[in-house]
Model the fold of this input.
Amino acid sequence: MELKWSVVIESLPLLAEGALVTLKITVIAVTLGSIIGLFAGLMRIARNPLLKFIARVYVDFIRGTPLLVQIFIIYYGFPQLWAALTGGQPQAISPWAAAIASTSINSGAYVAEIFRAGIQSIDRGQMEAARSLGMTYGQAMRYVILPQAFKRVIPPLGNEFIAMLKDTSLLSVIGFEELARRGALIIGYNARAFEVWFAVAILYLIMTLLISQLVSFTERRLKTGDHH
Amino acid sequence: MITIKNLHKKFGKLHVLKGVTTHIKEREVVVIIGPSGSGKSTLLRCINLLETPTSGEVWVDGFNLTDPKTDINKVRTEVGMVFQRFNLFPHKTALENITLAPIKVRGMKKDEAEAIAYDLLKKVGLSDKANAYPDQLSGGQQQRVAIARALAMKPKVMLFDEPTSALDPEMVGEVLEVMLELAHEGMTMVVVTHEMGFAKEVGHRVLFMDEGVIVEEGKPEEIFQNPQQQRTKDFLSKILHV
Ligand SMILES: Nc1ncnc2c1ncn2[C@@H]1O[C@H](COP(=O)(O)OP(=O)(O)OP(=O)(O)O)[C@@H](O)[C@H]1O
Ligand SMILES: [Mg+2]
Done:
């Protein structure tokens, strides 16, 4: 049996569609994850022990368990949990809903740690100066600490984005039609495993390379115009 | 203006302030000296609650800071603080550093805050640096902006924690000059510094601290020329003959 690269050309439109879905779900996951992560990160460093504890449990649970299992819990588990709680019949949730929920909750935990580290890397004197001027903790965070921390978290956020982009391939197990799932479907039909998986890999590679370029570009711009 | 009664501060097992009692009058300039680790910064930081006293009382302008009902943010607006390492906000220009708290804390209009900021920049001799970022300023210039930033809140008391000790020698003068002017205007000031010239010229009282207590206090000339305690003598002979 010979390799037949022409199948790659034929399946490229379908794969490209899948790549677009991958990009979309990753953007959604990291965007929602950043919002969740900002709050969870702030809770992690809060003085209130309850807030701290909740954030700690969330971050440890998510980072200590596989994303694949988290996807299963949400896609297969939650409908049953809901049914058990309400006493009705399990209602299936759509792959899109499960995909968004599982990846953003997952990303939020990693982003929380990124924000926590970013905030804690800002010199203690900044908070003290802000407080000594009469600012509340919230004002000091918002106007003094976070603007400085945001700049520092861009590179690790970029890494999180890349990691998430690759991890969304796990969503194929619940029939979510992102890039890897598209590849599997095409192979089911033309049986060209090597060519198609290789093409899939190349598409992932192109996306991750583009993103890391974008991140280092942003980083450079922030360094030269260090104030904005 | 400031009353401190039997103030104790512990960091875990480390007993840093061991019963400090003193009163600072309005318009008084008090200079605190003492060896490293004696608790000078800790004392200063207790006056605006950057450190929470373990026991004792701190009163500022009629407010008991150790009373949990006191609105500490409000008291802090009355107490300006200048730090050894300036602590300017690096992502903001000199002007923005000065206007941030008046706008956000006092609710002042932007143009009003800027007008005040320009006046203060003029006062500290930096009118031309309004739009410079901290990393474009020398240490002495940064410290002068930091003083202007604290003054913008129109505080009743100014605390200085070794404001010139992170500066190159040639920049010490420009900062001291601003502080001298403030003292002459009648600002109540508590200054941790080993600048004896400053202490003699504007200090009304010098406190010598060692191991968490005020060992000796008095007029600058008394303390410097004629210290009574052996610990004060030892300390002064060390810093005056280096
Ligand atoms: N946040 C803190 N946690 C634990 N220990 C602290 C803290 N702040 C200060 N200390 C300790 O308290 C003691 C007094 O410190 P403080 O900064 O008040 O001394 P100082 O007189 O200002 O000394 P210096 O002249 O070196 O500035 C030191 O032993 C210091 O290590
Ligand atoms: Mg000190």
Residues 6-44 of chain A form the longest helix (39 residues). Residues B 40-41, 161-162 surround magnesium ion (ligand 2) (CB under 6 Å). Chain A has eight helices and no strands. Chain A has one domain: 5-223.
